[in-house]
Each structure stands twice: as C-alpha cells, then as structure tokens.
Amino acid sequence: MPTELEELVGFIGHDNPQIRLLAVENLVPYSTSTPSIFKVNNLEPIQELKILVADHPKIAEHALTNLINLSGDVDVLKDLATDDKFLELLFHLLTRKDEPNANLLAMLLANLAKWDGLKNILEREQDAPEGLGSDSRVVNQLMDLFVKGAEGAYNKNADYDYLSYFFADLAKHAEVRQYLVKRQAYDDVIPLTKIRVFTEHKSDVRRKGVASTLKNVAFDIPSHPAFLAEDDINILPYLLLPLAGNESYDEDEMLDMLPDLQLLPPDKQRDPDPTILQTHVETLTLLTTTRPGRELLREVKVYPLIRETHMRVDNEDLRDACDRLVQVLAREEAPEEGEGEGECEPTSRVTEIVEEDDDDERIVEV
C-alpha cells in the first residue's frame, strides 16, 4: 500500500487542475526534507513537474518551487539541465514580458548553471522578444533581461536578480568568459560593461552575483589590459567603490586615487556584506597577476583603501584576503620576474582564490 505522501506525489499529473494545485503546493516542504519521493519510477514525478511549469500560473509557481529545491540533487540536476525541450520552455517563458513566475524561472536557471553542459547556451537561439532590444541569441536576451529588467522595468512581476548567479556560474567556463568580454554586434556593447554598474545596487543577490561574475572573468589574464583601461572595460572603479566608506585620507593619497574615489559624500558606506567585499578584494588580487596590473593598483593608491577595509570590517576571511593583496602590492618587483600568461583556474560563485568553500556550491532554495 502506498503511503499518503506517495499518493500525494501521484497526484502531480492529475487531470483535475485543483488536485494538481493541491498536490504541488503541499509537496513543497518535502522537496527539501524528503527529495527521494520525487525520484521514483525513473524520476517520473520530475517529468510531471516539468510539464506543470507551463500550467496555470499558480500551479506553475509551486512546480517551479519544487524543481528549484530538488535541483540540488545531482540526478535531478542532470535530468533538468540536459533536457533541451525543457530548457527551450524555460528560456521562452523567462523572456515573456508578462510572465508572472519570471523570478522563479531565473532562480531555477541559476541552479541549472552548475551543470557544465549549460555553457551551450552560447549556441542557443530563439525569436527575439518584442521590446527587449536584443537579438536572437538566448545569452544576449538573458543579459538584456538582467540589465534592462531590473526592478520591474521590463516585467512588472520580476527583477531578474538571480540571473546574476546564472552568469557567475557560467563564467567558470572559458567560452563564456570570452563572450562576456567581447563586443556584441547587435548593440556594439561589451556584456561585462553592462553588468559592472550593479556592484552598488540595493539588491544583495544582484551585487553578490555580479561581484562573482567579475571575479570569475578576471581569471582570464589576457583580458586584464581591457579590464584596467579607462577607455575599455574599465572595471577598477566598480571594484573599489563598494570597498570605500566615508573615511578621510591624506591629501597625497587622495589625489592619486581614481577620480571616482575622490571627494566621496560624508554618508558613503562600504558594502555591508563582507562576502561581497572579499570577492572584490580577490578580484583585485587576480588583477595583480601581471606587472602592469600591480603597478596600476599601486599608482591609484589601492593600498590605503584596503588598509581601511581591513581595519573597519570585522571579518576574518575578508581580512585574510586583504592581507594577501597587501603582500602582493608591498612586494618589490624583480627586473627579471616573469609574468602570468593564459588563464587561471576559475572557481564558483563567491569563492576563495586558493581554497574552495563548501558553501560556494550551495543551491538556491525557496
């Protein structure tokens, strides 16, 4: 005899929409506490949940919530991320201007990005959504959704903040890093320059995902000159401003800082999340891989900013990251010292440069 819980799972695909709704709604708690009940009969409940993503908005909402929580299971993750028809549905729904569950779709995609094969999004195409100003490439559509759709500007039901995690995890792949630093033909803009402005956004999720995207792209050493050039990607101001508080500096230090860092308002506050600050410091450390990078960071007086951050934020991991950067900046250059070439090995969202943290592999849950 099946248990009550097993019977409830069996109602996911019921013909009656009211029964389907009750089933998927009441199963949400079990998607985190008892995920094994969704893996019976070769993941049959997962297949039914995938169909319900296109059902009535309320049913779809709970189906998505279940799938978001269940995507932490590697078998479920593989099933979802390798189902081309399902991915096509997700991309289609997400880019609809009136999609009520767009934020949940973005959360699910953020989790699916942990599947390495999802980097094939670079080859995916679909009809360009009206009013988005994008082309037929899905990756460009999602980038424009994230940028133009912030705070309900494209879809009143969504802010697309979780797409920042999607791009952060995809940026672990060299092909995606190349996309992010390459000027796109349809709008003549480098994607990374679109998202850099969000390092001081009010959304913690958006700031954290963007910070990690910038860091993972910084593992591409040949792109560092473009990163640092004022007339190119020019990433330094967007890394340094979140680290700045309302401290005053000696005049000789202040005058050499980037213009964006001079004469900050008295109410300027550094980012309140120490993990985001740590990510920015680690990105700066990556930018010291080459001698020109180190010399520029010394020239624009990054050290005083790091010194104040180290002093004023009580977080051991952040202080360790600051110490590592200071050690590099304080080091005397040897004339014969070689430079790094190629790429460093990228890590997942919000990670240590040297050692990975288990928390970095966490899945978004609802």
TrEMBL record:
Acidic residues composition bias: residue spans: 334-344, 353-366
Domain (Protein HGH1 N-terminal) spans 95-277
InterPro entries on file: ARM-like, ARM-type_fold, Hgh1, Protein_HGH1_C, Protein_HGH1_N
Q: Which residues form the Protein HGH1 C-terminal domain?
A: 283-337
Q: Where are the transmembrane segments?
A: none
- One of this protein's Pfam families, by short name? DUF383
Region annotation (Disordered) maps to 331-366
User: Would you identify the family this protein belongs to, as annotated?
Assistant: Belongs to the HGH1 family.
Q: What's the name of the protein?
A: Protein HGH1 homolog
Originating organism: Sporothrix curviconia
- Which gene holds the coding sequence for this protein? HGH1
